Amino acid sequence: MTTTFGDHPHSAIIQVPTGDADGSKHQIPCTFESIHGKRMVLESPERLGISTAISVEYNDAMFLGEVIGCRRENEDTWQMIVNVEQILTGLQSLMALRAGLQGEQEPQPQQLDSSVSVGANRFRSNNLN
Length: 129
Fold this sequence. Notes:
Distance between the termini: 15 Å
Mean pLDDT: 80
Number of strands: 8
Order of helices and strands: EEEEEEEHE
């Protein structure tokens, strides 16, 4: 699969673990340029080192992988190549479930039948290995 955006950049967010005990992450706005197979190309205002583990939030998906290449595009932009190891989709459903479980919003009553997915089955994980 190859997806290239060319003239129509798409905003995404890179998340890099800070290493702090609280599990916090440094967020970097970026542009999602293309994906070909397991290789994703991003443009970022910050340089990340080779082998840095990252997650990239784009649309309703999270891509998990590591930086395998980084080069300066111009004075304020770095092009990164990421080896994608896993893709999580359906994040909006997962966030709604989490909010309901944490009491952040009033959960809507559900009628359970065979057509309703419950819990973690609301999102898909695509392991690319």
